Amino acid sequence: MGQVAVLFRLMPTGVDTDMRALGESVRGALPPGVTLRGLQVKDIAYGLKALLLSVVMGDAGGVLQATEEALSKLPHVESVEVMEEGLL
User: How far apart are the first and last CA of the chain?
Assistant: First the structure.
């Protein structure tokens, strides 16, 4: 089984969302077998920020979808988007 690197973009529900707290909640929400590689807060526009999340996971079927669903259920997350994905 191979490994896949995935970059997610999490958009918060508003400009007043605590991005540091959101980043911490991500760590506990990842399914087993998904390893967090990095977090970055990126300015979007007019005070709105996005959380970029880099993870590594196995290439087994359903892991990407399970991770995306887990992230979308976090409080204060408006949307989750896969920005990049590739085999390692």
Answer: 11
Q: What are phi and psi of 55, to 5 degrees?
A: -135, 160
Round to whole Å and give the CA distance between 61 and 39. Answer: 24
| CATH number for the domain harbouring residue 68 | 3.30.70.60
Question: Based on the structure, what is the number of domains in the chain?
Answer: 1
Q: What pLDDT digit, counting tens, does each position of 26-69 carry?
A: 999 999 999 999 999 999 989 999 999 999 999 888 899 999 99
Q: Where are the alpha helices (DSSP H) in 1-88?
A: 19-29, 63-72
Instruction: Tell me how far apart the alpha carbons of residues 74 and 45 are, in angstroms, rounded to a whole number.
Output: 22
Quick count: other Cβ atoms within 10 Å of Cβ 68? 15
- Reduced to 3 states, what is the DSSP secondary structure of residue 47? coil
State the pLDDT at residue 1.
72
pTM value?
Answer: 0.92
